[in-house]
Amino acid sequence: MVKFSKELEAQLIPEWKDTFVNYCLLKKQIKKIKNSRKPKPASHYPIAHHSDFGRSLFDPVRNLARTLSDKLFSTSEKPEILRVRRRKNTENGDDVEEIYQTELVQLFSEEDEVKVFFERLDEELNKVNLFHKSKETEFLGRGELLKKQLEILAELKQILSDRKKRNQSGSNSHRSYSSSARNSDFSAGSLGSPGELSETQSETSRTDEIIEALERNGVSFINSATRSKTKGGKPKMSLRVDIPDAVAGADGGGPRSIATATSALWEELVNNPRSGGGDFINRKKIQCAEKIIRSAYVELYKGLGLLKTYSSLNMVAFTKIMKKFDKVSGQHASSTYLKAVKRSQFISSDKVVRLMDEVESIFTKHFANNDRKKAMKFLKPHHHKDSHMVTFFVGLFTGCFISLFSIYIILAHLSGIFTSGAQVSYMETVYPVFSVFALLSLHMFMYGCNLFMWKNTRINYTFIFEFAPNTALRYRDAFLMGTTFMTAVVAAMVIHLILRAAGFSASQVDTIPGILLLIFICVLICPFDTFYRPTRFCFIRILRNIVCSPFYKVLMVDFFMADQLTSQIPLLRHIESTGCYFMAQSFKTHEYNTCKNGRIYRELAYLISFSPYFWRAMQCIRRWWDESNNDHLVNMGKYVSAMVAAGVRITYARENNNFWLIVVLMSSVVATLYQLYWDFVKDWGLLNPKSKNPWLRDNLILKNKNFYYLSIALNLVLRVAWIETVVRFRVSPVQSHLLDFLLASLEVIRRGHWNFYRVENEHLNNVGHFRAVKTVPLPFRDMDSDG
């Protein structure tokens, strides 16, 4: 049977962990009460040994009747053990808080320990009530704001529909008016065309129509009558929307919050009507706003569900802890205290349940065409359970990979690939292609390890990366993808060596890596719903966002993936070699120097080495532009320094002289120190001299502190692997390729190791701010009245 403490730890909301009942602390206090109990004095009367003599068959009946009469007709009440008082606390200004305080009526033999227990129990109850009330107020305010947004959206959709009908009827009347005008005695030039005469009036009337429709919903416009216009009479200045106090105040803003349309929605609605006709209210923008509001309702429903779970788990925790107290103390205090708990705010309030029902009805009506089953698929997405078949295939492919890799090592040794100088062409042409897949598979395996660790340590990575719960990749799936991929790669390498040894044409055999690459690309872009299509398309979409980083808003998953690319520069260089190898048809001529000595190829090496750092620097600029946080500019300097160091190393590899050696040392040392500082202090949140954990941070997920110290040392050692490019070990060309592959693999391992602590730090930041649901920016959002 699983202990409740472990069950509670497994079910609680990670971001709200500190606000739950501290069950372990209260259980320790009960253990102190148990240890401090005084032994009961022995009875002064000897125990009578009853014999069977004199007993009657009716004795059990008499005892039962006596017990029932005592319960039914006894007028004596049980003595009161404790009294729970509720008082109001007004120390926090206008907010009135209900504080629970327990008074002991009956004396206990271990009175001091019992008093401490109930003091801590009251503190936990007040803490739970306070947090529940704050979150309930927040969600209720968000619900009211969403209803106002939905009403505005409904009005705009109605205006769009009505105007479309009027345009259709107006076009028919315009054709009839034109035919009559041609038969009149007045010239068209003297009076002007009807479209020219009414263009300004129609634009103004459509704008006034929108204003009147929104004002019917309680939205007032500031200076709407005196706004400036262009020479053509069209609106020029943007309009500001004043949300009523009841709505604005519910969301935590000031008494007078100002709302404005985000993106280009309000511009399309009011300020910038398309010239030459067209939709004044853009249907695409309306659909975009509807999608945003729908997502906001989904997040609101998720938050309400978490708050409901929060209440039920805490109620169970209070019940369990009071039963333990009754068992240890030998008293029946649980009934009295649990009555007070049930009357408290987090249990007695039904606002969360009523709002959940209201959200379900609203979502079903407006976003699911009154189909409740369809609505609940959005509000309560189905979570796929882990399949044992996935675990079976992971083990199967792992065994196949180990067997095939052993066969490959034996065949490579027998054919002398890694020892004979005559096999240099294999290492220069075919081996880089296989290295691409090997590094990619290793990175996928490290990501699977990250998912496994994040799950076991209760880090909410799906919320951090904003993954859909029903399609998010699990660690078993990542291991399956990695082992399947690597098994296919090693199998292709074995087949390649066997065919070479069998005497097949080298031009035919060397097409195997190209075929494998083509299969991989086809699987990646396959449109069919197979082999983790949501994950594949999400990966492609993230790559698009990275390459076009200045033009897309940067999310956590975007810059996290861009950081992975900075550790895969050797893989990108191998892709360059692979592309040149097949485009130049080197697999037919086996002239590997065709690409290696080409000027364009050599110049592209700089571009490829710079690209990941450049993309990451552009993301920092975009985040600085969006958030106005100067830390992003400082972070950009880290990637610029890494870009300079990478370019200098490439130049030093081609021009081996003392000048470039000094430049390499200076640029690499500066970049490495920059990166180490940012890794430890910013990304991991460590090296805090004032922390209660020496040179770490106050909150740690891993219980053993030594893991953090070892991780700091490991990251430090792997960060200085660039020293090999300066030392230049004297090895053969074949061994040089193997050494480069080893260093590239170590960098991938370092990145996987870095990933865990980076997401751990982000999770702890969410815990510190109690962020368990995403805040969706609405199409009409609050902003200060001064702005």
TrEMBL record:
One of its GO terms (biological process) is phosphate ion transport. Pfam families: EXS, SPX. It comes from the Eukaryota. GO terms for cellular component: endomembrane system. Belongs to the SYG1 (TC 2.A.94) family. The chain crosses the membrane at residues 390-411, 431-453, 478-499, 511-532, 659-678, 707-727. It is found in: Endomembrane system. It comes from Cardamine amara subsp. amara. Residues 163-207 are annotated as: Disordered. This is Phosphate transporter PHO1.
